Amino acid sequence: MAGEPLLEMVEVSRTYGSRGRAVQALSRVSLRLGEGERLGIVGESGSGKSTLARILVALERPDRGEVRFQGRSILGGRRQDLVPLRKGVQIIFQDPFGSLDPRLRVGQSVAEPLLALRVPGDHRRRVQQLLEAVGLPAGSERLYPHQLSGGQRQRVAIARALAPEPTVLIADEAVSALDVSVRAQVLNLIADLVDRLGLSLIFISHDMAVIRHVCTRVLVLYRGEVVEEGPVDQIFEAPQHPYTAALIRSVPVLGGRIEDL
Ligand SMILES: Nc1ncnc2c1ncn2[C@@H]1O[C@H](COP(=O)(O)OP(=O)(O)OP(=O)(O)O)[C@@H](O)[C@H]1O
Ligand SMILES: [Mg+2]
Q1: Ligand 2 (ion): which residues have CB within 5 A?
Q2: Ligand nearest to the backbone CA of 51
Q3: I need a surface site. Which of 6, 88, 118, 172 has the fewest CB within 10 A?
Q4: Neighbours of 173 (CB within 10 A)
Q5: Confidence grade of residue 259 (pLDDT, cut at 50, 70, 90)
Q6: Which helix or strand (DSSP H or E) is residue 108 part of?
Q7: How far apart are CA 226 and CA 241, in angstroms?
Q8: pLDDT by residue (tens digit) across 120-152?
Q9: CA 231, 165, 48: angle at the middle one, nearest 5?
Q10: Structural domains for the chain
Q11: pLDDT averaged over the chain?
Q12: What is the number of the ligand closest to the CA of 43?
């Protein structure tokens, strides 16, 4: 990777719960996202993927470690230090119902980050452009989330994420809840937009095949630890870790031990 990473995590750990029943959600996880890079994060349910995503966008703080955006720590605790991150790194979640306010019309939802971040310019026009860019029909801005299909709602969530012109997009299981028939469409839309806008991408999924479709490099999480990392084709063809091999074969191993595989 040439130059400074855009987004970086160094030896990040995060534990949930109290001493008696602590869950180590992340254990000394490091990652670097270069400019224009598409990094996949793969792991089964509970491996720590969403915890990692939430820490990267400062929705949550790690117990230990460092997180930097454009070379600067986001853990300083000053609200002001988070301004570049709030604009520059946007996230799409699995469930667009969770990220879209049901009381807001589509147009208001997409315009909201523009208002919140005080982005100058004609917001109405920008919303139109964004809705068009994600393939929603004219007039969609007047609808409410419940009037849309799952795929359309996820398109709205994508438009909203792109509104502040981020440099990094994080997609956390962004297509997992969609019908198989629309999954590929939304996946291709994300890949096209990332290409067209020159974004850097962190694409989180439990599905190695989906990761391979959109990413160049992949990091494999198992019970909060990075067990393998490298170019996605190389790892797909010759996984070095039995857990990775199991993920590629789509064999569930949660609750089992890697040594048993
Ligand atoms: N707020 C929380 N309080 C307590 N435990 C949590 C919390 N968030 C996550 N955990 C635990 O941390 C571990 C990692 O959870 P996380 O949601 O990051 O996994 P994930 O890889 O995103 O899983 P999934 O594929 O199901 O979304 C799990 O054991 C989970 O139960
Ligand atoms: Mg998750």
Answers
A1: 49-50
A2: 1
A3: 118
A4: 20
A5: very low
A6: helix 106-116
A7: 11
A8: 999 999 999 999 999 999 999 999 999 999 999
A9: 45
A10: 7-260 (3.40.50.300)
A11: 92
A12: 1
Burial of 155 per CB tally in 10 Å (0-12, 13-18, 19+): buried
Q: Tell me the whole-structure pTM to 2 decimals.
A: 0.93
pLDDT at 2: 54
Which of 200, 101, 109 lies closest to 161 in space, CA to CA? Answer: 109
DSSP result, 148-195: S-HHHHHHHHHHHHHTT--SEEEEESTTTTS-HHHHHHHHHHHHHHHH
Q: Which of 113, 98, 19 is nearest to 54 (CA)?
A: 98
200 touches ligand 1 (CB under 6 Å): no
Residue 253 CA to ligand 1 centre (angstroms): 16
- The token pair at 60 is 């949550």
Amino acid occupying residue 20: G
Beta bridge partners of 33: 7
Per residue in 5-19, is it b (16+ CB within 10 Å) or e — as a string?
Answer: bbbbbbebbbbeeee
Grouping H, G, I as helix, E, B as strand and the rest as coil, residue 224 is coil
- Ligand 1 atom nearest 44 alpha carbon: 25
Q: Tell me the CA–centroid distance for residue 133 and ligand 2, in Å.
A: 27
Residue 253 pLDDT > 70: no
Encoding tokens for residue 201? Answer: 């991408």
pLDDT tens readout for residues 62-91: 999 999 999 999 999 888 889 999 999 999
Q: What is the rounded radius of gyration, in angstroms, for the C-alpha atoms of the chain?
A: 18
At 161, the pLDDT band (50, 70, 90 cuts) reads very high
* 50 close to ligand 1 (CB < 6 Angstrom): yes
